[in-house]
Specification:
- The protein is α/β, with parallel strands linked by helices.
- The protein folds into 2 domains: about 100 residues, NAD(P)-binding Rossmann-like Domain (Rossmann fold); about 180 residues, NAD(P)-binding Rossmann-like Domain (Rossmann fold).
- It is elongated.
- The two termini are about 25 Å apart.
- Bound molecules: NADPH dihydro-nicotinamide-adenine-dinucleotide phosphate (NDP) and oxalic acid (OXD).
- The site of NADPH dihydro-nicotinamide-adenine-dinucleotide phosphate has 31 residues, from helix 5 and strand 7.
- NADPH dihydro-nicotinamide-adenine-dinucleotide phosphate (NDP) binds next to helix 5 and strand 7.
């Protein structure tokens, strides 16, 4: 088996080491070896440059080495018949769940206020409600949203989801579509965004949407947690909402552009917590094992998991 390995911004030697350990017979081609492109049957990529994948004449499967496929779907030169799979193993899912639960608890237990008090040497308890007094609204009730809900519910939080299509049979209620958005927002104290980036979700986290969140909850205002994509939030609207109290606080992991420019006013906003797109990193070993299992299925003529619906955009 010959693969092309390419990942923008990642340490590729970690992936080579994982492949060597788990699949020593696998032959790895890099973009420095165009004379070997005809051998490549599988491309393992993260944010490849537009046009690269179209140069592989015998490509059978594209493996996106992360959950979000917005970067790869922007490349119109990728032949339409080649399947793209999202490498979405339980490791990346649990990492996102950890990050979401961490941020929800951080705001629920008033850590921003306690950290400010600590800096001012203030020993002062703040009134604290139970988790059951709060509703966490998760935009995107897919793999990552459902996993976060599975941990938040036993902690006592009310969980409500929002998706594109109906989701009967889940352990938490899910509203869907435009018709279900209003009731979802007006019930939500902590809004968690785990939406894929598509034409419909670009700019969805606008000032107008944030104004529709529940205003009289225990946190003194709603909180936004975005682990989806930076282009889903309108940067100036987030600032406006934080400044005028529309939002009581926020945590953002994703930005447009990334890295967040050093002169962005978001960096030092006292109500904002920033993580540098690390909510759920792809682990080379876990991901390699997952991808090898998927390609084994492909070679055995079985359907692969997490095949991207290109028309839908995720
Ligand atoms: P899934 O495809 O499993 O789930 C996506 C969910 O979003 C589905 O419930 C889908 O609804 C819903 N959705 C899509 N479009 C709309 C819309 N227009 N209106 C309402 N709901 C919509 O994706 P994952 O859970 O695996 O991943 C979600 C995203 O998380 C990724 O695309 C990526 O951008 C981001 N991510 C970020 C990471 C980070 O480190 N910050 C790491 C990993 C992922 P339906 O089910 O009805 O189709
Ligand atoms: C992903 C990401 O989509 O890391 O996997 O953002």
């Amino acid at each position: 088996m010959t693969i092309l390995l390419y990942a923008t911004g990642w340490d590729i030697s970690l992936w080579r080491a994982a492949i060597k350990m788990l699949a020593p017979g696998l032959s790895v081609v890099t973009t420095d070896e165009p004379d070997r492109f005809a051998d490549v049957r599988y491309a393992w990529v993260w944010k490849p440059p537009a046009g690269l994948l179209a140069q592989l004449p015998n490509l059978e499967v594209i493996v996106n080495l992360g959950a979000g496929v917005d970067a790869i779907l922007g490349d119109a030169s990728i032949p339409p018949q080649i399947p793209i799979i999202r490498a979405l193993d339980p490791n990346i899912t649990m990492r996102m769940t950890e990050w979401v639960v961490l941020q929800v608890l951080y705001h629920h237990r008033q850590m921003p206020a306690y950290l400010a008090q600590q800096r001012a040497r203030i020993w002062q308890d703040l009134p604290q409600k139970a988790a059951s007094a709060l509703t966490v609204g998760i935009m995107g009730a897919g793999t990552l949203g459902q996993s976060a809900a599975r941990i938040l519910q036993p902690l006592g939080f009310n969980v409500l989801g929002w998706s594109r299509t109906a989701k009967p049979g889940l352990a938490f209620p899910v509203n869907h579509g435009d018709a279900g958005l209003g009731a979802f927002l007006s019930a939500t104290d902590i809004l968690v965004c785990l939406l894929p980036l598509t034409a419909e979700t670009t700019g969805i986290l606008s000032y107008d949407l944030l104004r529709r969140l529940k205003r009289d909850g225990p946190l003194g205002g709603p909180v936004l947690i975005n682990g989806g994509r930076g282009k889903e939030q309108v940067g100036n609207d987030i600032l406006r909402a934080l400044n005028d109290g529309t939002l009581a606080g926020a945590t953002l992991d994703v930005f447009d552009p990334e890295p967040l420019p050093a002169n962005s006013p978001l960096w030092l906003h006292p109500k904002l917590t920033i993580t540098p797109h690390v909510a759920a990193d792809s682990d080379p070993e876990a991901m390699t094992a997952y991808v090898l299992a998927q390609l084994k299925r492909h070679e055995a003529g079985q359907p692969m998991n997490n095949v991207v619906d290109r028309a839908r955009g995720y």
